[in-house]
Here is the input.
Amino acid sequence: MDEELYDLLASMAAAGRRPVSDGTPQQARDQLAARRQGPSRGLHGIYDCTATAGGCSVPVRIYNPEPNPVGVIVYVHGGGWVIGNIESFDNVARDLAYHGGARVVSVDYGLAPENPFPSALNEVQAAIQWAAAEFPGEPLVVAGDSAGGNLATVAVRKLRQQGVVNVAGQALIYPVTDSDFSRSSYQEIPPVPTLLSRQEMEWFWNHYLPDSTLRTHPDVAPLHAESLNDLPFTILVLAGYDPLRDEGLAYAKELRSHGVPVDLRMYEGLCHGFFGLAQFVSQAQDALRDTAVAIGNLLRTGRVHHAQNGLTSFENSVK
Here is the structure.
């Protein structure tokens, strides 16, 4: 494990960070909101508004890094469908905009269990449709981390199958792609408690979709989709210390088997949720920057140009 990350996680544990599964959703949200954040990166302009499409409305925050951005990134934050909002992921959105040179639309979708499935998915689809209409002619990539990556890739698949929106690519950061807790990455014990454990992931699933018999539906477990042919170029970022690592690798394999180009980036020394730690862990900051640059290049040229900074394992784009 990266030394800076180890020290940070150890200090968080010593300071009394509790697993989210020890409390209620509101207690988990309060703990995330209280997490220390570094200074915010200045941008050309930021404003809040409401995205409306298909009879669905959702709050969004727009980040403009410069007067002439290269395109649009619709960003769907993580948090197990239960915690997080545009405030707690504000610095991630700012960095995506700054390093990618792109306009970011951060989606403040409703959280479970108050907003049960498929509420969040519907809101993410609405935000993507709205962004495409609001910024016509600008190439669009949908990005999401963890549960946000889950919502992002499902929404992109459904919208492209419907022929509603032309999405140039998707960037999935340690996404949830399945509900199978038997994978080996769920059994591994990290040297220090990380930001996600098997128990916590089970807690998230229980709040998002209590009926476990529905958890292999492709709209909640995209790895089970019959066809992924309609998905665009995919940037897939994974962490070595992450219960979701193996389902991410399985998703990369499945995408490629359906002819989808995949740029797979594995950060062996980092843990789940490292984008949110980028201001305190150098390798996490490098990974976030390089991911944003890759998205920006995809928007500009339709291609990804590779950077090796911080990657301990790397695969080129494969189709």
